[in-house]
Design brief:
The protein is of the alpha+beta class and 155 residues long. The protein is 69% helix and 17% strand.
Length: 155
Amino acid sequence: MKGKILAILLLSMLIIITASTKAATENVFEEQAAGYRYKVTIQDPSSKWEIGYKDETFIIFENENNKDYLAKYMNNVQELNIQIITLIIYTVYLILVFVITYLAKKKMKIKTSILVLIVFAFGIYAFINIIPAAIKINSSFNEANKYFEILAKNS
């Protein structure tokens, strides 16, 4: 009786360890930005990629021929996401500068020339960060589109 219980216990532990090892070897990474998306399922011996743009989705298995294109597509989607967040942050910052300046003018008796100087200084800082972010968004969007088209054509 004790032998059967021990055998069942060992067998169930073996099954649990095998299942958890299998689950641990499969990692999933995904991200999306501006309609582009990818999902990478890392498996042995190769990785499975699901790439997409809007309603189009392609399943691609990573190999030596497409490895660089997949990495560049992933990097551009990530960069696109970062730059969109940067653009939103600095746009909100610029709006806050205008709102705070308007409220300061309305509530306090501050000279207009001082407020203009403050808005100019903080506004320039925002624009210095907004313009490159917008340019990088356009560049990353075009690059992601280029690699998506290459990968879609070769899938």
